[in-house]
Design brief:
This protein has about 425 residues and is mostly helical. The chain folds into two domains: about 5-105, no CATH class; about 110-320 and about 335-430, no CATH class. It has helices at about 25-40, 45-65, 70-75, 80-90, 95-105, 110-125, 130-135, 140-160, 165-180, 180-195, 200-230, 255-280, 285-300, 305-330, 335-340, 345-370, 375-385, 390-400, 405-430; strands at about 20, 20-25. The chain has a two-stranded antiparallel sheet. A hairpin with a 2-residue loop joins β1 (about 20) and β2 (about 20-25).
Length: about 425
């Protein structure tokens, strides 16, 4: 909705004249201020300086990535450029060390990633029709099983062709990729391997990390490629709907600053409740939060004003902080050196097999049980094969389907717990 008090932003110039929604001369002035602050060492620490750097640099990299034809169409566009552009700034020591340290602290110790994701989870679910959740229900776990089976089978096959043993191909490469990221996947997996295979956990971590990094890259790329393909093949995609006739897009509302504040408080309250219950239940707080939010929505346990408020807060966060978040992911979570060291052709091919097998298996099984193949591949397949919460944001951004975040989190968290379970069984069988 236009606002007469904001004439500069209602003229709607062509997009090449705007960066991050701001006319480019003003954005360049903001960028000059940021560079000057870095040069003289006066950039504020903590949230203020970190968020300014992330928004400005993420906006620039996203602007570039979305306008380079090949990258835009098949390699994630602004998503991939924001993440790996940020990682390159660290790798080549272009950003001052204190800025990198501040952003890393802000993302990790400050848990800005959690702040972002909980807004998406709460807003996505509470903005849905409760009937959609009831219809989708436990059926969603079938494509997760399909993704797991597809990844294991294709990895074992390609591994055999490339000279890998099944143990090395499946346990060392496939399972960590499918296990939900570093904290929920690689670290507990390394402990399982230490107990059952004999080497120290640090040894296995050094083997698992390159697989996670490459798996995350391929998940983003394949999400972008599948999205481009589906736009040309009718029937492959539901345009953001997981099932035919079930829309998970938020309803149109009259935006309100007060409502966004309510949504902020409600979203983080659900997450904190998940943390409390996580002290007693063997589930990740995200998984518990999803269950809590879905239960409240399905059984209509909270008033519609909170549902609408969370949906509005989700829309605000997704529209304004996605590129900043992706830049932060590149700084704090993406080790370009680790990715480069793992780039032997065989390792790359077998990693690609894991991700492709997950996407294919989820898409096929999803189609059989009534889901659109693209949305099933992205959520149940690629969001299991990425690096958990960070990867979910990147993959859904590449697929232009951020409203599917609740299902991405089911794959990353509950699917990751399932991977830990079957890995323990497989280690006992293959060791």
């Amino acid at each position: 909705m236009s606002n007469a008090s904001e004439p500069v932003l209602t003229t709607h110039p062509p997009m090449w004249e705007r960066i991050y929604g701001i006319p480019w001369p003003f954005f360049l002035a903001i960028t000059a201020i940021l560079i000057a602050a870095m040069a003289v060492g006066t950039l504020p620490a903590g949230l203020t300086g970190s968020l300014m750097t992330m928004i400005v640099a993420g906006g620039i990299l996203g602007f570039i990535g979305d306008r380079v034809p090949l990258i835009r169409s098949y390699f994630g566009g602004g998503v991939i450029v924001s993440i790996f552009g940020a990682a390159a700034l660290v790798y080549f020591n272009i950003l001052p060390d204190e800025v990198v340290d501040d952003i890393t602290t802000f993302m990790k110790a400050g848990q800005f990633l959690n702040f972002y994701i909980v807004a998406l989870i709460a807003g996505s679910i509470l903005g849905m029709d409760s009937g959609a959740l009831k219809k989708i229900g436990v059926r969603f776990f079938l494509p997760i099983l399909g993704a797991t089976f597809g990844a294991i089978m294709l990895t074992a096959l390609v591994g055999q062709l490339l000279g890998y043993t099944i143990q090395d191909a499946v346990l060392v490469i496939a399972m960590p990729i499918m296990g939900g990221g570093m904290g929920a996947g690689a670290i507990p997996l390394s402990q399982i391997y230490e107990e059952l295979l004999g080497q120290p956990a640090s040894y296995y971590i050094s083997l698992l990390v390159p697989a996670l990094a490459l798996g995350n890259v391929f998940s983003i790329i394949i999400a972008s490629i599948l999205t481009a393909i589906s736009s040309r093949v009718p029937g492959l995609s539901g345009d953001g709907q997981l099932m035919h006739g079930i829309s998970i897009q938020e309803k149109v509302q009259t935006l309100s600053l007060r409502m966004m504040g309510i949504g902020l408080l409600a979203s983080i309250s659900f997450y904190v409740a998940g943390e409390v219950l996580g002290a007693f239940l063997p589930l990740h707080p995200y998984a518990i939060m999803i269950i809590l939010v879905a239960t409240c929505k399905i059984f209509q346990l909270i008033p519609s004003v909170i549902n609408d408020a969370c949906a509005q807060w989700f829309s605000f966060i997704a529209a304004n902080l996605t590129l900043a978040q992706l830049f932060g992911i590149g700084i704090a979570y993406t080790d370009l050196d680790t990715v480069l060291q793992a780039l032997s052709i065989n390792y790359v091919l077998i990693t690609l097999a894991v991700v492709a097998g997950a996407a294919f298996g989820a898409g096929i099984v999803g189609k059989l049980v009534g889901f659109y193949p693209l949305e099933s591949s992205v959520t149940a397949g690629l969001c299991m094969a990425n690096m958990g919460g960070t990867g979910d944001v990147a993959v859904l951004s590449a697929a232009k389907r951020m409203q599917l975040m609740p299902f991405a989190q089911i794959s990353s968290r509950l699917g990751g717990a399932f991977i830990l379970l079957i890995t323990g069984i497989m280690v006992a069988l293959l060791a």
